[in-house]
Amino acid sequence: MTSVWDTLKERGFVSQCSNEEGLKKLLDTEQVTFYIGFDPTARSLHIGNLLQILFMAHLQRGGHRPIALVGGGTTRIGDPSGKSEMRKILPVETIAANGEIFRSQIARFLDFSNDKALMLDNAEWLAPLNYIEFLRDIGRHFSVNRMLSFETYKMRLETGLSFIEFNYQLLQSYDYLVLFRRYGCRLQMGGDDQWGNIVAGMDLIRRVEGVEAFALTSPLVTRSDGKKMGKSEKGALYLDADMTSPYEFYQYWVNVPDADVEQFLLRFTFLPVPEIKELCAAKDERINDAKRRLAAEITTLVHGEKAAREAADASRAAFESGGPGDLTGVPSLPIARAELDAGIGIIDLFVRATLCATKSDARRLVSQGGAYVGRQNMTDINAVIRSDAAEDGSLLLRAGKKRYFRIVIT
Predict the structure, then answer these.
(1) Could you give the CA distance from residue 258 to residue 403 in angstroms, rounded to a whole number?
(2) Has residue 145 got a pLDDT over 50?
(3) In CATH, what class is 231-319?
(4) Residues 6+ apart with CB under 8 A from 235
(5) What is the pLDDT of residues 25-65, one digit of tens each?
(6) Out of 3.40.50.1000, 3.30.70.1520, 3.10.290.10, 3.40.50.150, which CATH number does the structure's domain 332-409 have?
(7) 4-218 under CATH 3.40.50.620, yes or no
(8) Among positive and negative, which fits the CA dihedral 43, 44, 48, 50?
(9) DSSP-derived 3-state class of residue 249
């Protein structure tokens, strides 16, 4: 039987570990309580967060207990890790609202029944802290020289590191100590950019409690084409269907580079490794079958089977021959027939359809031959689109080869 540690390594989740042999032994002999933190800086989790949730899910399936820690307290400070400038300080009410959304999203991927997992918010113990007592009891265990040796702080010193951000590592370390004391948490995990913060918390537990805790990070996933993983034409790939539609989500995965299919199947699905290897042995056009399987699996995981099926049907209808098919899964916008009868400029139309962020982008798209209305390639930036261009009561717009949008005439 494959150990959970071997599963994590085989699927590419393991990067840095404070004590690999010690952690492997602990995972093999005890039920380990572990945690990952999620700062609610946006209205939805994104695909990078999902990678960490699946990191947790594999350990839970191996018999261990996850703590999903929503950073209602740490978000008030802002994590400088991986950032070239200070995060925007959010209102406490916004942080709380985002945190509730995070809680509902995380609950879809982990089993919280019968205390098999815990969902906590660090605002519970960070918000009431007495700053002077905190500095006396916790701050004295931190060396400024050591903190400045971590890459996060070294990078930010060049552009400016605020004092409030400098406190972030202390607060995250305190989280680990609190979770150890209250729940016996012995392992903190995260992405490689969190290594310094996690190690600091591990050291704090050793100094204060005299117990070995563990740090484990996963590599930050990048695409082979150099693009940041999880970034679509519209920005981050969110788990909220209102921010990234299931169709757009599905299309992202069917369009990843061939070289990335295997690593994404390993990390973003629960398919058995031998099946993944067999799928990815295909070359040329056949690798598209593996991409469609990847897209179907991860879209089902995030949005459910029905939404994934509709997205797949819409993708086939838009890209494969044999008729228009069912396009209901393609993002759409209703426009009154009277408005279309009067005519809408193609530049305005593509901006309203969110296929272009600005009018300048739309002009560039049209002039370079990347804009389509139905089957017609539009190259005139002054073109006016009317309802007579519709087929079956809608206009199918396309930007480039892969991005579609449907205007529904009402």
Answers:
(1) 19
(2) yes
(3) mainly alpha
(4) none
(5) 999 999 999 999 999 999 999 999 999 999 999 999 999 99
(6) 3.10.290.10
(7) yes
(8) positive
(9) helix
